[in-house]
């Protein structure tokens, strides 16, 4: 009897402090295991990001020697940059265009690959290939193919009579930018398709069957049942693509790198030009900070408006 | 458990030290093992890749040096021209500059007070052997910082067969001749283009300089960079005339030099400005090409060419390395070693003994002849690097824009630097 009355309060008693101290206790015990990861994250993420933000307020010589604080000079110089509006427009076109087209094509491909048909395994394999090849390599192949002097794609267009003479697809801002967008879609497809395919396979067949029983057509089933259930997978695919495409340098660098002016630049390639051509490491840092804020804002807006993570 | 904790702590501490080293900024030595004990010194040497044979060539030079100086080791790092500017910038920023660097421009480093004056790192015999024009081009405010290492000049390469076919008997000497000859070739309708004008980002500053120098223009007046001048504008406007007349290959604004010279070698461009190594490329890739070399056409026909000199420079990292650096540089510039480098890479020598001894005297006669008329980039002006960058990324716009406004944009970048 006494034991019982005693144990109860003790138990209840011990529970509370445990809740508090055990959290710290758990953390303390987990720390040695988490430690290396935390050090790594701090070292490769937070430190460089912080250092970048710091340099954006410094006056750096073209060889990186620190000449003291610069206040907001770097940001002012950036805002006064005349081609900025064109570059920002390009960035929007680049990100929205590539991500939307990639997701739309991937939705179709994923649906196709979800069906059973002979040779499906081979087709699935074929779609991974652009993923396995290096982006620079893929891009370079297309770049050479489109070369007006010795490109086979150009020669092919001339041979079949589509063009009178080779056209400089990679030598003019707009066609080169569109070409780069096409390649960006091509290399983004595997990841997106597979993410969506994985999402499709988590949808139980009885849900679809139930919809059919209720008389829903295949389009209505897709729109009302499949697509909402695909929402989490779609969210992951979209966010990762936005970040990836926004920060992508190699494709534009290879395809549009030799084009004069800023008509084919995004903010990311402009950072690169600030460093390489203009030798302004500090302005480039300021633009990097702006770039970082833009991508953060885009993701927040996306999460707010589309609310892809909601469960209903 | 305890061991794990201490291990984690140790790795944290190590991580912090490493970061501290990398971003210290001041060169407080970092690893102390380099200098002192036992009199053994190691030198870091950073060089660009001129050709496929560059690495082997340097390894040979280093091996012969280390044989003579067993207490000095030289660590070679070879980078492509595309990357070397980024690499050196990162190294300087991290306080890990090499001891000796081979690159085109030295003035930025000199302005940041990172370099030894040349006379402190080579013997007076070596110093006196350099040709005067190159030494001038290697000085900043009266002090020589760069050691002129190799030189290059430009000349007009022309396809003899195509010119004959177009009824041109002599290579053009003036801009008007060039325009007429190039237009005549383009009008043949054989798919061969008259003049190759590479204004893509690779080396647009070179092509532009050839034209502006040829029109009596210059990139500097005193200490200021002058891009937007009447002479330069006239030259760039003539370039635009060439483009508009269809005398050039299509889209010159986005054509890079190296791939364009390949097209010349293949015989699809009738005339293009080339360099000494272009001769070797023709021999290797299309020995059948019937070509000639002539001075670059200028506005009035008087010879001018663009000279380029690359430099060796020594960074002041540790004062106890100065002797070792001097030993290495003197070894490099000793006539035999120097000529083995210059001749193998196919460039023009910058020393007097080299000019006498070079095995390529006959082969490069066309270039050696115009060398006294060479004008250089104003690479001692610290705003030049940014100007060059602006020329590379902007001048090609003359294909679609007004020449004057393009020059104004470039001038603005130069003023900003």
From TrEMBL, chain A:
It is found in: Cell membrane. The keyword Cell membrane applies. GO terms for cellular component: plasma membrane. The chain crosses the membrane at residues 33-54, 92-113, 125-146, 173-197, 233-255, 284-303. It is a multi-pass membrane protein. Pfam families: BPD_transp_1 (PF00528). Residues 1-23 are annotated as: Disordered. It comes from the Bacteria. Residues 88-302 form the ABC transmembrane type-1 domain. Its main location: membrane. Keywords: Cell membrane, Membrane, Transmembrane, Transmembrane helix, Transport. One of its GO terms (biological process) is transmembrane transport. InterPro entries: MetI-like, MetI-like_sf, UgpAE/MalFG_permease. Belongs to the binding-protein-dependent transport system permease family. This is Sugar ABC transporter permease. It comes from Jiangella asiatica.
